[in-house]
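[step 3/7] inverse_fold.run input=structure_tokens len=312
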């Protein structure tokens, strides 16, 4: 598919997963398979953002894919991360966990494509009017921070019919059959996060990946993140403490969010989760992550999904 002058061989976006769950190695592997590989640059230092983009570019050896970054609008480093991403000439900026009107003017004329994440037809139309190149429509069944309580299956078709730009459906796409279902709603492609956690190239710990593989239906619960947004996570000791509203006030704060409840540190909890710390970590995951039954290479994932998302 073509989006302006950007040619995407396989319309699969690898969801941006922070903190440091989707970095250069995973993003490059996805781009080399013809998809859009995404580095999550939220709440990481500017020098590291620049280095990860350069590393990913050095590892991308095949044409047909693209390199993107995912930046939370709610993050304190949003403007800086956008600036660096433009300077380093990424192909796509994907932004969610809030909506920024300013970014459209910032990106205009740079050659970088802008894909806002939205969860309603109203925001989709606003994004289109402001100049979005495509949109990612994310339902409440996705992993991480959420903008709606409606599942992707309930909102994608309406938004596809309401806008003229390409729509990527996100939330609930775990199996090839899920991707086929999303495409049947009119989506131009899909965004998958959870499925790419359980890949060899993802730089989280083996334990984190095994928690996905060993999870069962119903193991994903909703919590209220300190970012002020609901989020889906695999049940764990720490998640139970968050749900019980225990006092988990962080001792140290780096002010990584523009607004934070400070009931717990979502950044530190995610990092500990990615390290496999089941006592102090949070394991963000889509509601249907329990469908993942194996750790595959990125190439194997693409081999399973390609035929379902490429329109003939």
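[step 3/7] decode complete -> sequence:
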């Amino acid at each position: 598919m073509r989006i302006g002058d950007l040619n995407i061989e396989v319309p699969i976006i690898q969801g941006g997963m922070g903190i440091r769950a989707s970095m250069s190695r995973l993003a490059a592997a996805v781009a080399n398979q013809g998809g859009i590989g995404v580095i999550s640059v939220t709440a990481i230092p500017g020098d590291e953002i620049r280095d990860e983009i350069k590393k990913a570019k050095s590892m991308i050896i095949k044409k047909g894919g693209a390199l993107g970054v995912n930046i939370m609008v709610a993050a304190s480093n949003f403007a800086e991360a956008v600036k660096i991403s433009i300077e380093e000439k990424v192909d796509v900026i994907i932004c969610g966990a809030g909506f920024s009107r300013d970014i459209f003017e910032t990106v205009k004329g740079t050659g970088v494509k802008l894909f806002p994440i939205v969860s309603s037809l109203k925001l989709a139309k606003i994004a289109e009017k402001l100049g979005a190149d495509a949109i990612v429509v994310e339902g409440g069944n996705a992993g991480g921070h959420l903008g709606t309580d409606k599942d992707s299956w309930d909102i994608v078709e309406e938004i596809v019919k309401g806008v003229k730009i390409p729509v990527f459906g996100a939330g609930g796409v775990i199996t090839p059959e899920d991707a086929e279902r999303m495409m049947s709603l009119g989506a131009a492609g899909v965004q998958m996060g959870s499925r790419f956690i359980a890949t060899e190239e993802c730089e989280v710990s083996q334990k984190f990946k095994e928690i996905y593989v060993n999870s069962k239906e119903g193991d994903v619960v909703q919590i209220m993140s300190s970012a002020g947004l609901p989020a889906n996570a695999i049940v764990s000791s720490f998640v139970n403490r968050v749900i019980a509203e225990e006092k988990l006030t962080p001792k140290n704060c780096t002010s990584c969010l523009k607004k934070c409840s400070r009931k717990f540190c979502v950044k530190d909890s995610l990092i500990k989760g990615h390290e496999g710390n089941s006592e102090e970590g949070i394991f963000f995951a889509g509601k249907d992550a329990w469908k993942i039954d194996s750790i595959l290479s990125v190439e194997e994932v693409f081999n399973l999904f390609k035929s379902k998302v490429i329109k003939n």
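[step 4/7] annotate
The chain has two domains: 2-202+292-309, 213-290.
The mean pLDDT is 93.
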